[in-house]
């Protein structure tokens, strides 16, 4: 990390993660260039516009000429622009490849040796883990969706640059100014609040979870500790939240007692991921999540007095 490296380029900056991360970067005295296409009509960065250290660019991360100009001014690059999730990528495979892989590859090419990259990938790349065994960063990557496959391919490319950190994020949850209801914890909690029931397919499938504010903290932790963390992938999740879908719903039911959980005797979950994850590597660098699953569920229940499904979601 360059001494006094304080200028950050964030693509997809008005998305679910970026809308939480950008204010955190500004609060820590970084100068931020926030790029987003605003295709969902979101207004999630309006509360930051008073900050003179923030520049907002309405643009597309696939625009190589724009990215060349913006990357040249950045000390730190955080490429968040992405078609997120298996369903969306399956519906738009060409766009997913262009945004999730090709655009970030090009951004790496356009940046240089003095710049650092802190990149989000996903622990969905583990696909179907081995029963009872924690997936570590050394475990084989066996993605089962196009989304996972593109992220795995991207990680190899970006880490090969020799100046990057990859954060393999668990399934994010929690309230963001650019809210999403199609993430698993957010979705199930919404159903508990509004429908008061859920039907689970393959309820034993397990995943790991992480609050969106802790995701933002992980990016900042990576920037601050770049020299000791660079050129490695890091799982980022709650170590006490390797839960099946049924276990997750039971946690939600503790705070939404009218929530009825039904297990379908047949049927197939379109997302076949099923794994548990070790977050030990990043924890050894001094990073620990601050928001528990329980606290995040309480926050969501409160937030769902404000939002409704037709307002938010990528799917």
What does this molecule look like?
It is a single chain. By secondary structure, the protein is an alpha/beta fold. It has a domain at 7-172 and 210-237 and 277-289: NAD(P)-binding Rossmann-like Domain (Rossmann fold, 3-Layer(aba) Sandwich), CATH 3.40.50.720. Helix content is 34%, strand content 19%. The chain is built from eleven helices and 14 strands. The protein has helices spanning 18-27, 64-71, 86-91, 93-110, 146-159, 184-194, 212-224, 226-229, 245-253, 280-283, 293-303, and strands at residues 7-11, 31-36, 54-58, 76-79, 116-122, 134-135, 164-169, 171-173, 197-200, 206-211, 233-236, 242-244, 260-263, 276-277. The strands form four sheets. It has a seven-stranded parallel beta sheet, with helices on both faces. A three-stranded mixed beta sheet has the order 8-10-12. β1 (7-11), α1 and β2 form a beta-alpha-beta unit. The longest helix has 18 residues, at 93-110. It is globular and about 55 Å long. The two termini are 37 Å apart.
Topology:
Blueprint: E1 7-11, H1 18-27, E2 31-36, E3 54-58, H2 64-71, E4 76-79, H3 86-91, H4 93-110, E5 116-122, E6 134-135, H5 146-159, E7 164-169, E8 171-173, H6 184-194, E9 197-200, E10 206-211, H7 212-224, H8 226-229, E11 233-236, E12 242-244, H9 245-253, E13 260-263, E14 276-277, H10 280-283, H11 293-303
Parallel strand pairs: 1-2, 1-4, 2-3, 4-5, 5-7, 6-14, 7-11, 8-10, 9-13
Antiparallel strand pairs: 10-12
Helix pairs in contact: 1-7, 2-4, 4-5, 6-9
Short description:
The protein has 315 residues and is an alpha/beta fold.
């Amino acid at each position: 990390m360059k001494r006094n490296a304080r200028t950050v380029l964030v693509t997809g900056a008005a998305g679910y993660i970026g809308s939480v991360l950008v204010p955190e970067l500004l609060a820590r005295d970084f100068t931020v260039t926030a790029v987003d296409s605003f295709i969902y009509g979101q207004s999630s960065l309006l509360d930051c516009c008073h900050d003179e250290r923030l520049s907002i660019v309405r643009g597309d991360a696939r625009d190589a000429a724009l990215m060349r100009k913006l990357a040249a001014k950045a000390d730190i690059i955080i490429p968040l622009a992405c078609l997120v999730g298996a369903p969306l990528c399956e519906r738009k495979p060409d766009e997913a490849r262009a945004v999730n892989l090709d655009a970030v590859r090009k951004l790496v090419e356009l940046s240089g040796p003095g710049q650092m990259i802190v990149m989000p990938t996903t622990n969905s790349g583990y696909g179907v883990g081995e029963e009872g065994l924690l997936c570590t960063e050394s475990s084989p990557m066996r993605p089962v969706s196009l989304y996972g496959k593109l992220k795995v391919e991207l990680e190899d490319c970006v880490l090969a640059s020799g100046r990057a950190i990859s954060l393999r994020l668990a399934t994010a949850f929690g309230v963001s100014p650019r809210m999403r209801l199609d993430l698993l914890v957010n979705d199930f909690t919404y159903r508990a609040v509004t429908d008061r029931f859920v039907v689970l397919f393959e309820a034993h499938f397990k995943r790991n979870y992480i609050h969106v504010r802790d995701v933002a903290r992980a990016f900042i932790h990576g920037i601050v500790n770049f020299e000791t963390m660079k050129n490695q992938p890091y799982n980022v999740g709650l170590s006490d939240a390797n839960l099946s879908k049924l276990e997750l719903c039971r946690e939600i039911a503790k705070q939404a007692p009218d929530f009825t959980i039904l297990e379908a005797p047949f049927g197939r979950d379109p997302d076949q991921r099923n794994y548990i994850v070790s977050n030990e590597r990043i924890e050894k660098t001094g990073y620990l999540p601050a928001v528990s699953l329980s606290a995040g569920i309480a926050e969501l229940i409160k937030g769902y007095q404000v939002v409704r499904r037709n307002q938010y979601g990528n799917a």
